[in-house]
């Protein structure tokens, strides 16, 4: 029976880029969970206001479980909702953390609107993906990589260290963006972000 290594993080943190590289180096496959859901028709509806597909989480989870169980070794999965995956098949969850200012730039460069950018930047500031993953998988399976200012090669090297079980990537208070971003930036993110009916 195989095991999943999940690459998690808010949109734009570099999950798919890392998952592809990690799978290549480990000689295994990478599954982009959103792509997988769309390609396999595991969609409940299209949310026009948010311009996103609502995926059928149960169907995706059971398909992924079957795939992982039928493999030997690791399967790399990237998603911003790791908590939908059955903890029984998960070896490690690696949460990518990116400085909010760098994340803001990447999401604006994608052409995303202010509201959507701020929603995701605020999720990064609050560590929402890590908090949800900790709740779902427990602290022994969760690792955090600060990818700010690092090339994909450097990030890949650190991810391989996590896979080998090296210390230094435990979640916790190591990453605290509130200490690192100017108060004006925080005001900018709060102004149009958070609750989506405020825009
Ligand atoms: N380490 C890095 N340094 C600089 N740019 C990067 C790095 N990793 C990824 N990128 C770039 O950032 C953008 C987002 O990367 P990617 O698509 O891998 O993120 P993602 O987390 O999978 O996003 P989504 O959740 O929307 O699928 C891409 O343009 C990618 O080329
Ligand atoms: Mg992606």
**Percentage of residues in strands:** 15-25%
The CATH C-level name is Alpha Beta
Which class do the helix and strand fractions yield? alpha/beta
Q: Overall mean pLDDT score?
A: 94
Distance between the termini: 48 Å
Based on CA inertia axes, which overall geometry fits?
globular
In N-to-C order, the SSE pattern is EHEHEEHEEHHHEHH
Strand tally, please? 7
Low-confidence spans: none
Per CATH, the architecture is: 3-Layer(aba) Sandwich
Q: Report the sheet with the most strands, covering strand number, pairing sense and barrel closure.
A: 5 strands, parallel
Rg calculated over all Cα atoms? 17 Å
Structure annotation, total helices: 8
CATH superfamily: P-loop containing nucleotide triphosphate hydrolases
The small-molecule ligands in this entry are: adenosine-5'-triphosphate, magnesium ion
Q: Would you tell me which CATH topology applies?
A: Rossmann fold
Q: Report the oligomer.
A: single chain
Strand order of the largest sheet: 2-5-1-6-7
Q: What's the domain count?
A: 1
**DSSP helix fraction:** 40-55%
């Amino acid at each position: 029976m195989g095991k999943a290594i999940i690459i998690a993080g808010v949109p734009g943190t570099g999950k798919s880029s890392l998952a592809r590289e990690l799978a290549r180096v480990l000689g295994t496959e990478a599954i982009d969970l959103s792509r997988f859901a769309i390609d396999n028709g595991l969609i409940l509806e299209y949310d026009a206001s948010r311009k996103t597909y609502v995926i059928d989480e149960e169907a995706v989870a059971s398909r992924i479980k079957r795939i992982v169980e039928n493999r030997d070794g690791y399967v790399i999965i990237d998603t911003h909702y790791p908590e939908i995956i059955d903890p029984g098949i998960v070896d490690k969850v690696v949460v990518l953390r990116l400085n909010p200012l760098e994340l803001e730039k990447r999401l604006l460069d994608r052409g995303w609107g202010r509201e959507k950018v701020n929603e995701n930047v605020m999720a990064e500031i609050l560590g929402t993906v890590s908090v949800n993953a900790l709740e779902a998988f427990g602290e022994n399976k969760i690792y955090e990589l600060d990818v700010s200012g690092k090339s994909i090669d450097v990030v890949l090297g650190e991810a391989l260290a996590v896979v080998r079980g090296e210390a230094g990537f435990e979640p916790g208070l190591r990453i605290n963006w509130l200490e690192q971003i100017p108060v004006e930036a925080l005001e900018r993110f709060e102004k149009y972000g958070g609750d989506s009916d405020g825009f």
